[in-house]
Design a protein that fits this description.
Elements (H helix, E strand, L loop, with lengths): L1 E8 L2 E10 L4 H11 L17 H5 L66 H37 L7 H17 L4 H29 L13
Helix pairs in contact: 3-5, 4-5
Bound molecules: prephenic acid (PRE).
Prephenic acid binds next to helix 3, helix 4 and helix 5.
């Protein structure tokens, strides 16, 4: 458990609010009970949120670099950014985990209070324009990848027919050098470019192996017999 923020209630000198972050729901239960139900008794320490809405909402969501762990917090109060030990704009907080301040106004991801009652923060028009372009670029990427896989599919067949190994490390080394240089001149992270190529090539090799396996198991494909010309 980590105390991510701790502050007092301006209107109640005895009022302390702590925002706690738990590694996981499983590791929340014990320390939570120790504070609220333990021997120390409940000396006026009340969970602000009695029933945690967050774990239920995030259950089953994939975790990974693109999906940061959601905050495991029992706080329902606003966090003044200057009091937060972590920059709040970096805190993974999504719409579902947005909460309300003591005044009842929604708390935004950067810890400020949005006073337009009940409304989510407005998204700027530029965000939508940029997303339109991102969608177009993603569509182009999908089409380009589909074309690349058509070519590599044919390479896979050629390699299987000639019993060539699916992977060609020398070719890969040339590709890496070339793509890293291209990435650098395009101001793209060359490490990312290399990782992306690795990811692609690994998939291609997988396909090549599947093609070679299916040929081995089914034997070489029968060549179509050319129709005899009528004399
Ligand atoms: O060029 C080849 O030999 C391929 O099989 C294609 C490809 C690629 O996807 O670019 C895939 C595997 C090889 O190790 C090298 C390159």
């Amino acid at each position: 458990m980590t105390i991510t923020a701790s502050f007092t209630d301006e209107e109640d000198p005895d009022g302390h609010i702590r925002i706690r972050r738990f590694h996981s729901e499983a590791r929340r239960v014990e320390p939570y009970a120790a504070v609220h139900d333990g021997d120390r008794g409940n000396h006026g320490i009340d969970p602000v949120v009695k029933d945690l809405p967050i774990p239920r909402e995030v259950r089953g969501r994939p975790r990974g670099p693109r999906c940061p762990a959601p905050p495991w917090t029992d706080a329902s109060s606003n966090i003044p950014p200057q009091q937060s030990p972590v920059p709040l704009e970096k805190a993974p907080m999504n719409r579902q985990t947005q909460t309300k301040s003591q005044s009842g106004s929604p708390v935004t991801a950067n810890g400020t209070t949005d006073d337009r009652s009940g409304e989510a923060p407005e998204k700027p028009a530029e965000l939508f324009e940029l997303r339109d372009s991102i969608d177009n670029i993603d569509a182009a990427l999908i089409h380009l990848l589909a074309e690349r896989f058509k070519c590599t599919g044919r390479v896979g067949v050629l390699k299987a027919e000639r019993r060539l190994p699916p992977a060609d490390p020398a070719r890969e080394a040339t590709q890496i050098r070339r793509l890293r240089a291209l990435a650098e001149s395009a101001k793209l992270d060359p490490d990312f470019a290399e990782k992306f190529l690795d990811f692609l090539v690994a998939e291609v090799i997988h396909h090549h192996e599947a093609i070679a396996d299916s040929r081995r198991n089914n034997g070489p494909r029968a060549r179509p017999i050319p129709a005899r010309r009528a004399r």
